[in-house]
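Comment thread on ticket #2218

A.B. wrote:
> Attaching the input chain for the structure job we discussed in standup.
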Amino acid sequence: MTIEMLYVLILGMLGGIVQASTGFGAGIVQMIFMPLFLPMLQASALTTILNVWFGFTLFLQYRRSVRYDLIKIPLIGSLIFCYIAIDISTRIDVSGLKSIFGFFMVILALYFIFFEHRIHIKPTVPAALTTSAISGLGNGFFGIGGPPIAIYLLSAIEDDIYAYVATIQLFFVINNIFATGVRFSKGIDLLSILPLIIPGMIGMTLGKSIGLRILNRLNIKTVKKLVYILLALSGIITIINTL
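C.D. wrote:
> Ran it. Output below, let me know if you need it in another format.
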């Protein structure tokens, strides 16, 4: 096993723990560190591929709880803006945009932490399109699209933690399959990351077993708090990594 494979295995495990327990976050954990030893485009592609597989396993496990109606509109906005972001990222240097995205995540997290009791996001078309557009841009540019759609679904699903996890995983699977196809069509090198996929999958499997044990002890209110904290930390780390 090469040192890169070991890194990916460890990052896969950490990402699996976070995503299984909060519904998202594997991409954030992995994209903090993967660009340290992989080019940005290959790092985001590897993260996307790993999360297709991981999200599908979680979706299958809780498929009876999926709220399909809640992701119909968000998928439209997310896929459109994800395509736009990937297309732009293949032609310009997007590293400067990462700090802006980091600041946005911090501000969004602080807003929800301090004003959660005043926020009531309903599953309306404008709310779905707005959050999904931001999610699509984050996924396309940086492989980080979870926070906005997680906030939307947490507000829309307030009674069932497993429905939230299952629904958001299906959303991620469809988006990540689409993003992988677009990256391949745009000529982004995916062959070089193939040897890293298996170690990543093994790591995420180990992390999943730990994360689900944590999830079984949580309620939807606690998951919301964890999501906001994770959102703030990911934004801070994203900003630091661009300095």
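A.B. wrote:
> Thanks. Noting for the ticket: The mean pLDDT is 83.
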